[in-house]
User: Fold this.
Amino acid sequence: LAQLFRPLDLLGMVYRTIRQGLIDMEAMYALIDTPTEVADRAGAPTLAVTGGTVQFDQVHFGYDPQREILHGISFTVPAGRTLAIVGPSGAGKSTIARILFRFYDIQSGSVTIDGQDIAAVTQQSLRAAIGIVPQDMVLFNDTIGYNIAYGREGASQAEIEATARAAQIHDFILGMPQGYDTRVGERGLKLSGGEKQRVAIARTLLKDPPVLVLDEATSALDSRTETEIQTVLRDISRKRTTLVVAHRLSTVVDADEIIVLDQGRIVERGAHADLVRADGLYATMWARQATERDAPVAEGENGADR
Ligand code: ATP
Assistant:
């Protein structure tokens, strides 16, 4: 028995270590498919974030170098501002987020944060500077408190509760059978899409990163939940540089700049009102979604993804 026990212990330890080291990997679940290896350069410095200005300059990228997906993408998100990325399915929106996390190295051009090339700094410091609220977070089979605390090692119960309050999930947690000690995940209490998103928001708030990536849910939340979550997201993005990967257009109206991607190219850019006036692809998408918004929600779609 002892012989069996040791390897299992070791396995448990390795598992916990990996788990601790992979906070962002876990959070990025919805964004990653099969990340290739990127390596830190020898003696790479850590990223020194001053304000959090994010800049893409003539970025060319393909998962397969033979098939380019992004054909020269350039934009700047000044510190504290919000950029929304919209466009049809497959346009390359999530790819931009993956590149910012440096899950892949680009073929040419540059990506910088506060003027530092993200390929030149350590991956750890890069990922520590970026928080993500993924569209569908995977919860650990652990307590709800643990799931939030994962945003920052050593967070106190008071800090966890403060962020849960800010993410508007504190009252819901208090209503659970064992409060913050209630087990969630596959083997515990299942949370709805909106609840999981709030946990993701709380976790990100605890991490308190200068740069935020919001990967907007593709699945429909009921409209009250959606409005509440949008209010919280607007709050947390106020003082941070934010990139919203918008699969729908509901969160982009207030963005400082919107870029419209189509087949890996920016085909339009500007603020919401300008783009509606321009009467191009964005205006068409907006008009189509307005029709969908006004249409009655089909049975079973409301508050989906439980
Ligand atoms: P959606 O709104 O449907 O999520 P998107 O605009 O986010 O779409 P991306 O996920 O960035 O689109 O995909 C852009 C292109 O890259 C697509 O043609 C897709 O097939 C391709 N692609 C995405 N991930 C990979 C991958 N891991 N390996 C190879 N090609 C990929």
Q: What stands out?
A: Residues 87 and 261 are 5 Å apart (CA to CA). Residues 2-21 form the longest helix (20 residues). The chain is about 35% helix and 20% strand. The mean pLDDT is 83.
